Protein: MGAT4 family member C
Organism: Takifugu rubripes
Amino acid sequence: ATRFHGQMEGKDEMRCLRKRSAIPFLGFLITFLLFLNLYIEDGYVLEGDKRQLRETSVHPASSERYVHTFRDLSNSSGTINVTYRYLAGTPLNRKKYLTIGLSSVKRKRGNYLLETIKSIFDQSSYEELKEIVVVVHLADFDLVWCENLVQEITRKFPHHIIAGRLLVIQAPEQYYPSLEGLKRNYNDPEDRVRFRSKQNVDYAFLLNFCTNLSHFYIMLEDDVRCSRNFLTALKKVITSREGSYWVMLEFSKLGYIGKLYHSKDLPRLAHFLLMFYQEMPCDWLLIHFRGLLAQRDVIRFKPSLFQHMGYYSSYKGAENKLKDDDFEEDSIDIPDNPPASLYTNINVFENYDATKAYSSVDEYFWGKPPSTGDFFLIVFNNASKISKIKITTGSDDRQNDILHHGALEVGEKLVGTKKGKQCSSFITLGEFKNGNIEVQDVDHKIAFDIECVRIVVTAGQREWLIIRSISLWTTQPPSQ
């Protein structure tokens, strides 16, 4: 009886173990298969990758010769063999700076694709237009709908198509893996699983096509409004990240919108989406992909450069009122904090260090209650002319962790001390109000080139202190 009782306990433990291990199993499987894929040559070449500037025809879906299983899509070298239809435009031989990719299907209620394309072009300057190419993947199997939409696109954007700035493509239906009998993970209804699984494949084929068009790629949805001069803002951020490792930079906190990649990573991402197309939604897979390539943390920038404008979802026409409250129409006005060293004598909490307040990434400095005379100091590598300074403290969920009493100062005459560099002369620009301060026309108020910016605590407080962002705008010197 004792032996039998022990066996039963052992079986119960095994059942519990299986339940506990089921949750991380998918993550382990993804990790194993992705890193297995790292050993495969990154030779993802389209069958039409020689970029023959012609339109290819769709073969009948009923022909057994063109009925492909998922396994057939990838050969041993990792290539994805898809013959795309060119519905409008042809790719240029010269690589651009940025490819903007979006995939679109027929919606039951409302279609925002034309508005999205218009926003991309209208919000870009003539010089910016030279550096971008927009690729639209019409991923609906209704060929009549596709043809009608292509006619509208061609009528509204002919000069962009002629200039090679706008391409409309389609991956024929016979290249898709099976969309029937899919896994019902997360207890989603069958039609929802089919929708999101197909969407993963739609994006995979789009990414695969865009691999060699530009140096960088940004993913949008087909119902997005862009901020003005978004490309200039993107370039400024990319330049600021030179020398640092990143896989994905985010310029919106919504869905698949505003996710930026190096184009060299697109083949691997396309293959990854195909490999796990029925497991989970695209935005979840993107998080796994970023983590597996060793970018552990989200790198999201503010203000957001793209806004969701659609009211109805492409899935069943359901309402979708999601908005990005960090979106700003005039993205060109993002700060350009000059290189600097940061110092503070405020007791820092964990890893919320001073540099996070000065970064454009959505992070912040967090310190324990400051005392009168405590400071937060920015020392520029080179003296700078500053036109505007804006500092915000506190956060949405910790609204009382603001600087209740403080002053903003700028300084000159840099000297070395035992604790680092410091300015020997300061001028006060203003006092914090409700935890924030913004000073315009600093270069008109201050006669010298600024070497230091300092936040000084003028009265102690019991609350902790979050410095959410320090934003500086420099005055560019006139060209010689």
Summary: Residues 123 and 228 are 5 Å apart (CA to CA). The longest helix spans residues 2-38. Residues 340-474 form a domain with the Jelly Rolls fold (CATH 2.60.120.260). The chain is about 25% helix and 25% strand.
